[in-house]
Amino acid sequence: MRYWMGIDIGTGGSRALLVGADGAVAAGVTAPHEDIQMHRPLWAEQRPEDWWGAAQRAVRRVLRKAGATGDDVAGVGLSGQMHGLTLLDAADDVIRPALIWCDQRSQEQVDWINSKAGNAMVLDQTANPVLTGFTAPKLLWVRDHDPQSYERVRRMLLPKDYIRFCLTGDYASEVSDASGTALFDVVGRCWAKPLIEKLGIDASILPEVVESPQQTGRITRVGGDATGLRPGTPVVGGGGDQAASAVGNGIVRAGLVSCTLGTSGVVFSHLENAAYDPLGRVHTFCHAVPGKWHVMGVTQGAGLSLQWFRNQLCGAMAAEAEREQVEIYDLLTREAAEVEPGAEGLFWLPYLMGERTPHLDASARGGWIGLTAKHTRAHLVRAILEGVAFSLNDCLHIVESLGAEVAAVRASGGGAKSPLWRRILAGVFGRPVASLETQEGSAYGAALLAMVGTGAFDSVEEACSATIREVRRQEPDPDLAAVYRERHSVFGRLYPALKQLYPEM
Q1: CA 297 centroid distance within chain
Q2: How far is CA 398 from CA 186, 250, 351, 358, in A?
């Protein structure tokens, strides 16, 4: 049997997926790695070595699960969490824990970049304003606050590209992930050399960048011994998690938009030509489709909101979930489904890690607004689901304003497995929310890119057309949509009312 493998380096774990020549998923395994370390408010770090350890376990287990060996794998594609700062020294050892995508500590460095280079140069060079979540300000934070580590830096890699290095020994990336560094010319699809020079960053630490389906190297003997993959197996560029997920969802042509409900929430649209929001509320990046672009809005605390609630406030539910042999999330959404839409006037602001779209405010804070003694745990959960959906609807409106067509929304990610959350999304968006036969997202997209890169398909569009199928659509309920239009109007006024208070908090 011939397979292609997608490896996705997520925030909570590393996933390996085997896909057959017909696009069917043969097996998938996720190996968890250490949780985010938050030593201070707004800090978020992980150890790259943990990503690699989890990736090794996931690859070996998925091969066993499918009854396959490394000889059966024709190619490997990579995807992963974007923006993470992975630093290697001259011996290729990791220097310090990686500052990951949701780390917000670098506002001082963002301000310095805008002062040093000027907002106009930043936008001209990268097609995006620089944000605290992006990689460049994280690198400069290390320069300013950990100079001993900075002096040792010889290579800078993104999370999935560190795994590429472990597998192949190559320092390489691809255009979609590089777009989120604030050092990449998104329109020209190359490193933004004038900006890099202006900021005093040594360009030699940056990896080679290719288009997403292009081969970057092959599995080495060391990589093969660690994972069970055959030395010499081709590895393609792959994609940042959102671009790879979009490929896995078939968002490779106009008219379709995806909504990914992972730790963060992302509304993603394909663009034939680069277009960007002058206010910087959404991101314009290179797509994993060669020569194409995408625009995406990001809600920092989407699935993270429900995960936080589960971890901090639901300890007593663990025994009940074990008795029923279900996930705690299933119990929570089952309770929430009993609550009327609107959660009886309760709102959730999903700003647990600041916010990107539409507010671009690292100081924003989350919370419930409108709590009364009548509200129950079910109301709290219902408000979380609705608050995340309202925030994603803000993303959708901005994406549309840039000319993206939105006929339907394809939902993916862990949160999209919930029928209740899909109903809420359809009501808030006022559009059908489609579910796909394959719900694997990023890892599946990475495998499809590997298929293109090894000649199984001639193009990414052909691969998606041949393998991706919708299986159901959640149509928006008119009565529910009316309630949510009214509720969203209130939600939209809460952030402006609190904005001036957040820095004081």
Answers
A1: 11
A2: 19, 21, 19, 8
Q: Enter the DSSP assignment of 70.
A: B
Task: Report the percentage of the chain scoring pLDDT > 70.
Answer: 100
Q: Which range is most confident: 250-264, 267-281, 457-471?
A: 457-471
Quote the distance between the C-alpha of residue 45 and its chain's center: 16
List 37's β-bridge partners, or say none. Answer: 45
Q: Which residues of 226-246 are buried (b: 16+ CB within 10 A; e: fewer)?
A: bbbbbeebbbbbbbbbbbbbb
Contact criterion met (CB below 8 Å) for 46 and 100: yes
Two tokens at 259?
């909504």
Answer whether 3-249+441-470 and 303-436+475-498 agree in fold. yes
Catalytic residue among 50, 72, 241, 277: 241
In which band, very low, low, confident or very high, does the pLDDT at 213 lie, cut at 50, 70 and 90? very high
Question: pLDDT tens for residues 397-406?
Answer: 999 888 887 8
Whether the CB-CB separation of 315 and 270 falls below 8 Å is answered with no
Does the pLDDT value for residue 42 go beyond 90? no
Does domain 3-249+441-470 sit in CATH 3.30.420.40?
yes
What mean pLDDT value characterizes the chain? 94
Tokens of 117: 């280079």
Separation CA 348–CA 342 (nearest Å): 11
- H/E element, 104: none
Crossing angle of helices 478-498 and 419-429, in 10° steps, is: 80
* Angle made by CA atoms 304, 361, 195, in degrees to the nearest 5: 110
Q: CA geometry: angle at 107 spanning 105 and 108, to 5°?
A: 105
Confidence grade of residue 360 (pLDDT, cut at 50, 70, 90): confident
Separation of alpha carbons 297 and 123, rounded Å: 17
> CA-CA distance, 338 to 202, in Å (whole number)?
57
Among the four given CATH numbers 3.40.50.720, 3.60.15.10, 1.10.150.530, 3.30.420.40, the one describing domain 303-436+475-498: 3.30.420.40
CA distance 95 to 155: 10
Count of helices and strands (H, E) across the chain:
18, 24
Contacts of 133 (CB under 8 A, 6+ apart): 83, 101, 102, 103, 104, 300, 356
Could you give the C-alpha distances from 113 to 35, 200, 201, 330, 494, in angstroms and in order? 30, 11, 12, 45, 30
241 is catalytic: yes
